[in-house]
Model the fold of this input.
Amino acid sequence: MGALQRSESFEKSYARMREVFRETTGVRFNIEYYHFDDDSEPVISIDAEAERLVLDYVPEHGLVISILTKESIISFSEKNYITNLSSDNSVVFASKHNDETHCIIQFI
Done:
């Protein structure tokens, strides 16, 4: 298996998420996960308070961003996702494997 190239955008997205997390007490976020989105409806929608935000490195997956809540752990690896920052306080993760899977995380 070839070595993963480090994604600067992945690090920037984590830094922005971390900034929001530090600036706001009781950070709430809304995650909408779309997969083969025929009806423009998310397959998964989570509205929760983030307890922790973690950036890890896993050799087979590269950087991994995890959002931990009381009920869930939501993780995105740079092996499987590309990421972009949005101007409206959102982070978007899009699948590297198909054009029809993406996740929008908005801090509220």
